[in-house]
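for the writeup, i need someone to sanity check this before i put it in the appendix. the sequnce is what the collaborator sent (i think, or maybe the updated version? ugh). structure was predicted straight from it, no edits. if anything looks off just tell me and ill rerun, i have time this weekend
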Amino acid sequence: MLVSNAEIEELRALLEEVIRLRRNVKHAETSSVGRIDAVRPRHRESALNLVHYAELRRHDIRDLQSRLSKYGLSSLGRTESHVLPSIETLIWTLTRLVTTDGGHTAPPAGFLDGGELLARNAVNLLGPRPEDRSTRIMVTLPSEAATDASLVRGMVERGMDLARINCAHDGPPAWRHMVDHVRAAEEATGKRGLIAMDLAGPKLRTGPVRPGPRVLRVKPVRSNTGTVLEPGRVWLGEAPEPAPAPALPAIPLDDNAWAGSRKRGQKITLDDARGARRTLVVEQTAPNGCLVTLDKTAYFMPGTRLTAVPDPAAGKKGHHPGRPSVKVGELPAVQESLLIRRGDSIVLSSSLEPADSTSVGNHRIGCTLAGVLADVRTGERIWFDDGKIGAVITAVGPGELTARVTSAAPQGTRLRAEKGINLPDSRLTVSALTEQDVADLEHVRELADIVSMSFVRSASDVRELLAHLDPERDRNLDILLKIETVAAFKALPDILLELMKWADVGVMIARGDLAVEAGFERLAEVQEEILWLCEAAHVPVVWATQALDTLARAGRPSRAGRPSRAEVTDAAMAQRAECVMLNKGPFINEAISMLADILGRMQDHTQKKSSLLRRLRAWDDAGAGATETGTDP
């Protein structure tokens, strides 16, 4: 019961503020009626709610929330999926509190069931909810998935719900084999697996770097005092197929059969590229190769002669089947790089002439997407290689820009060919859909359930994709937009309204590029805001990039391969999305199993921003006492 006139006056002030908030929300609805009416009829309520939420979040209502909470009233903190009904209900409640007779108005109509709409849309796009968790798992297929059906089946058995094929790699024949293997795994396991195919989009990467010498260095592992802990290992000739783990390099010879005819324990001598005499010991043999060990570093180069040491146990003639020696064949050139330090100058050029890796202080390297050089301005930021190197543009000229390095490792950072470039401050005019994407789209519409669009920056990019799709012919092809740029984040409400012109749609938070563009320190905030806005639009979200990445790449057996505490916490937070994406890696099955377990546990604790208070048994032995009934399921 209210005890003072001051409290009634404060409640009246709260009522006026909430009414004013409703007025703003309704005005935004009126202003956007054309865009709302343009979406598919099934998305109209979602588009309306999206407009309401976007308007609500244009106001700072933190003080209002605090004052509402003081009276045990809704603070509008969980309105994402039903904005206007939440405001109307709050107005009705406040009106009854400040009216002396209790008010005679009927309560507002029932809430829009935004959660049900989101769940429906998630099923339509991502497939049925798994039995043991609420969040699906998407896995990027490696190239090996085109030739290894058992690899794909293992992923499905471990919990993969969607397979992702990146059209930037492999090609149509390999994509077709991957899809065939997913379908075969479906039949074998009885589990449905959807196919999502990513259009590559424009590739903004560094150009080539002049290659180094054709040489291969093999070295042992030593302790801090120089003691050999593990010998260096390398295959001479051909490694067996499949190659045993761990993967080791193979040195081609002018006669690979010579290596296959060696005996275990036999020694092989050479003078390496520096003229240093080295001895190799045969550890294992294969039909056309042998695995050798060494306890001193050796540099192999084409033409290096390898000589078999006679085996004294074989008699005076020794053991020389065939030729006594062979030469090293062609080796790949060493991939060189530019050493970039803070304060250095980088010229990014439209010329793809290989860069000079010996440059010091002033560097020049090509850019694979020359068109962007006309869109940049001085003072804008530029990032290289997933944010490892940061710079500010100081000059722009015909076909090139100059940037001063502001961020690099203390000892310098290596910049290699084919590394990503991000221009977060620049208004790029390059199309998000390339000619190659349009060509690949023909294969995607035949093979996939979902097409993913990369490099989206505005609603016009979405319109361009929709223009290449036929509502009738492609009605079974769903759309997933990758939000990986600051421009896309800022334009997300407009992008979602444009996207709702298609039937089944979703958003992927591509956190790798997004972190570089927005800043790593801001990534947590940005990904939260994307989750909120998509929930308001009832659009399913895929949480992507580096989830349990260490485990997928290195595996549990090695200490370095265990997922970090931060990665496990990140995976748990991902449960608020409708799907989580894992990148490929040699230990991907272990990562799938662990992620499925984490997601299954977390579904009982959180639902979007809400905490679910299931019974906790962790403190049952802490002396808290029994419940009234003595039992609790």
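The first helix runs from residue 5 to 31. The longest strand covers residues 277-286.
thx in advance!!
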